[in-house]
Amino acid sequence: MIDTSYKNEREDAQEILRELRELLRQSEDAQERAGPAPVAAMAEPYQTALRTRLGGLHPAEVASVLEALPLDERLIVWDLVKAEHDGDILLEVSDAVRETLIESMDSEELVAATEQLDTDEIADLAPDLPEDVLEDVFQSLSPEEREQLRAAMSYAEDTVGALMDFDMVSVREDVTLEVVTRYLRRLDELPDHTDQVFVVDRTRRLIGALPISKLIVTDLEVAVSDAMSTEVMKLHPDDEAQDAAQKFERYDLVSAAVVDRAGRLVGRVTVNVVVDYIREKTEDEQLAQAGLREEEDIFSSVWDSVKNRWAWLAINLVTAIIASRVIGAFEDSIEKLVALAALMPIVAGIGGNSGNQTITMIVRSIALGQMQNARILFTKEISVALLNGLIWGAILGLVAFWIYDNPDLGLVMTAAMMLNLVLAAVMGVFIPVVLNKLGRDPALGSSVMITAVTDSGGFFIFLGLATLFLV
Amino acid sequence: MIDTSYKNEREDAQEILRELRELLRQSEDAQERAGPAPVAAMAEPYQTALRTRLGGLHPAEVASVLEALPLDERLIVWDLVKAEHDGDILLEVSDAVRETLIESMDSEELVAATEQLDTDEIADLAPDLPEDVLEDVFQSLSPEEREQLRAAMSYAEDTVGALMDFDMVSVREDVTLEVVTRYLRRLDELPDHTDQVFVVDRTRRLIGALPISKLIVTDLEVAVSDAMSTEVMKLHPDDEAQDAAQKFERYDLVSAAVVDRAGRLVGRVTVNVVVDYIREKTEDEQLAQAGLREEEDIFSSVWDSVKNRWAWLAINLVTAIIASRVIGAFEDSIEKLVALAALMPIVAGIGGNSGNQTITMIVRSIALGQMQNARILFTKEISVALLNGLIWGAILGLVAFWIYDNPDLGLVMTAAMMLNLVLAAVMGVFIPVVLNKLGRDPALGSSVMITAVTDSGGFFIFLGLATLFLV
């Protein structure tokens, strides 16, 4: 135990994977040597070893193994594990890999897998399930569970409703802690992440919360109403998930109550779900920034990858063609002074980099609610751009002068750099602020836009100045 | 209570900020009208109102208010709040803002602020404290606490040691749950995030854990050894923080034990610290990707911002100059066929975008431990590049043909696109894999490098082909 926990996580995963692939290979070899029997006796021990090894793994570990295996091996492993925790594993794998797993299962298996899950988990899986499977599962639920499932499926992505579960424990305020303790003992085990039980009145309105740690250290004769805390964080199903996550971070919560508009307790959100949400959001943003529509199954087809990546390339193609036409408009000048062709990408490139720095700052300020100081920020970014333009523009001017022995070219270079950096700063503030005003995520798309502006703008400024003063 | 919790977090923060600034303004106005008395009687009520409003806020809320205020207002607010939770607030603000706050405090205030904190928190603050303050604080600690502080300060950033605290509760295995419960009751309150008490033997070796939820639902006569779970997650102070975070995510932990090489319990890590760590890492990465060395205080000087941003701009300047020299080598060709100047940025630009998509995929695969399949990934990325090159190259070839009425130019364009996309794919796999092999974070720097390669490479390929076949 101690030994394995000392290794780092990635090595662990790598090792499990190596072991499993070795077992898989041996099993296949044995099967091959033995001929076409369904499962040859010779392959049997390896299959058993595989099953045992897999049985000892956490569903999350199995999920990461499945994601790291090529499709054929993935389905063999899936066949061996799916009887037990298939529902949990389906929840853990990425969307693309989940598709390949669900495709390999028949309706009966899917219903069995789904039925093991809590209603909030079924709701997470629902979009990927065939209609008839979902119908069967729905029929197998109790009326209360059906109501929960309907509710859970009705909330939009990125809302608290989509994060919440229904595993909360609630008690009444007029009983003693003794009664609460006896009640809890009757449950076989407390739901995961129960750090507090919620206190509700006759109409299920949330009036307080009793932390478990308080329950343990307080005299059992005390009434709930005296031990409970009434300063309770309350979330609403329609709240933005992002804001709820911020509250968990800020107030170090383990769980939080979700109440409806009338203040009635309808569910709870737990920190593990929030952690997953934060991680997923981050990953989505990283993928989106590189123009990947969604996470790719690394073993999916080339065509799937091309489809996942085409939109961004197409947008960039359009902006690149526009920039190209800006250059095209100055072809006469370039023909007369070909040095312009060599120098123009520098002006455009540094402008793009500087603009992206400004955008990163502004996007952060928007997220942190600091935009009441928009004017100060704007002034500062312009000042930074001017100073940077002076510094880097001067250096580049000297470089241009040195290479082409043309002082005027150097001056034009310096002036163009300054102007393009100021343009980058202006647009670097303007683009995310406008996106935000329009209710869009300023982190997405800003980078592509600023690069388009500083490319075309940089070419125009530099070639324009050169045409005016040099040729 | 219910009402405010319905608002989203950012609106809350905005509103608090607006209110506070209004109070500040009124207080300053009153002070001005009253003349130069230290705190004029007329300003007094506003100051009191401000203090009351601030007193009701969570340290994390005060921190975000401080970050959103210009330096002069920030220090007024800080003066009003610092007596109470100054240590906690200092922990919450960003590094840059913390500097401004610490600068405004004298040694005595700093010692008082620091002394309120736990030893693991003091260690977090230590790098920003003056030597003499740290010495004073150290003297005020008990021998055990000094040992803890020394230990906490000895661990490298990004290790489990840097995340851990010493607030764990531990019990012996040979007592009953009754005894444990009585022991816990003697504590005034359990430490935050105590979801389990750790079970240790005579030598403090960790042998199990007793979940609080188990403690509550189990008969009190049962012995700890019978109720505890022996499958305990054990972290080591030298483990990478990132791997520990992955374990919290994967196994939905609230707390985890930290043991030394001999298996002795030395501390614990809690999920709130992990959440903060995940968020910080993400932010650092985002900043680093845009070439910002650290988070900027938005009210810091222009010069501070320029310093924070210069390194990346300098690197990009160098790569841009190299690309420019590649173009310079083909100036004769451009002079003869000036269309080349207009078309070459397209080839370079799309190559950069496609390369960044590949890099994003590979960095993810490395993080998820999927690189045993490196060859499959490599083949796939090359295939995707060839197919994309065919599609987008053909489109661009047609565009070039259409604009310049030159079929050969179109063919060169198509060929150059294909080659540059393949180059982007090869380097997009190669760069992060090599960075990882060298023990560096493949997420950092990859993007700058791939863009440098696809720019210079794209210009070389396109202009080279054009020189061979067109001019």
Structure notes:
2 copies of one chain form a homodimer. The first copy, chain A, is mainly α and 471 residues long. The first copy, chain A, has 3 domains: 2-157, MgtE N-terminal fold, CATH 1.25.60; 170-276, CBS-domain (Roll), CATH 3.10.580.10; 302-469, SLC41 divalent cation transporters, integral membrane domain (Tetracycline Repressor, domain 2, Orthogonal Bundle). Chain A contains 22 helices and 6 strands. Chain A has helices at 2-6, 9-34, 44-55, 59-67, 71-92, 95-103, 107-115, 119-125, 131-140, 143-154, 160-163, 177-186, 212-217, 224-227, 241-251, 271-289, 302-328, 331-336, 339-367, 374-404, 407-437, 446-469; strands at residues 170-172, 196-200, 206-211, 234-235, 255-259, 265-270. The first copy, chain A, has a 3-stranded mixed sheet with strand order 1-2-3. In chain A, strand 4 (234-235), helix 15 and strand 5 form a beta-alpha-beta unit. In chain A, helix 5 (71-92) packs across helix 6. The radius of gyration of chain A is 30 Å and the shape is flat. The termini of chain A are far apart.
